[in-house]
Specification:
Strands 2, 4, 5, 6, 9, 10 and 11 form a 7-stranded mixed β-sheet that branches. The chain has a 4-stranded antiparallel β-sheet with strand order 1-3-8-7, with no helix packed on it. It is globular, with a radius of gyration of 13 Å. It is mostly beta strands and 124 residues long. 0% of the residues lie in helices and 49% in strands.
C-alpha cells in the first residue's frame, strides 16, 4: 500500500506558474504508475497527466498539452506537475494517484491509491 501527499498548490495570477509535488510513502514507488487529476467546483474529476513507472512515457489531456509537464524522481519517491501559462479554467483541486503497474493510464478507474488533493486557484 502507498500513501500520497500533495503539496504546492496556491493562488496564482493568470499566466503564472506553479509546481505541484506528490510524495509517496513506502519503498516501492518505482513500481507505480502515477497520474494527476483535477476536479473543479461542480464538475467531474478529469485526467490531467500520467507517467509510467520508469518515467519514459507520459500522457497529457489536450487542455494542458504544452503547458503542463509531469515528471518523477524515483529516488525521492515524488512525482511533480509543472504548470505554466496557467488559466482561470485550471482552477481546481488537484489529486495525484498511483497504481502498481508500468503504464501511464489516463482513466481514473485504473488508479487505486489517491492523495487528499491540493487547491490551485488561478485569478484572471
Amino acid at each position: 500500500q502507498v500513501q500520497l501527499v500533495e503539496s504546492g498548490g496556491g493562488l496564482v495570477q493568470a499566466g503564472g506558474s506553479l509546481r505541484l509535488s506528490c510524495a509517496a510513502s513506502g519503498r516501492t514507488f518505482s513500481t507505480y504508475a502515477m497520474g494527476w487529476f483535477r476536479q473543479a467546483p461542480g464538475k467531474e474529476r478529469e485526467f490531467v497527466a500520467a507517467i509510467s513507472r520508469s518515467g519514459s512515457v507520459t500522457n497529457y489531456a489536450d487542455s494542458v498539452q504544452g503547458r503542463f509537464t509531469i515528471s518523477r524522481d524515483n529516488a525521492k519517491s515524488t512525482v511533480y506537475l509543472r504548470m505554466n501559462s496557467l488559466e482561470p479554467e485550471d482552477t481546481a483541486v488537484y489529486y495525484c494517484a498511483a497504481r502498481p503497474n508500468p503504464s501511464a493510464y489516463m482513466s481514473e478507474n485504473f488508479y487505486n491509491y489517491w492523495g487528499q488533493g491540493t487547491q490551485v486557484t488561478v485569478s484572471s
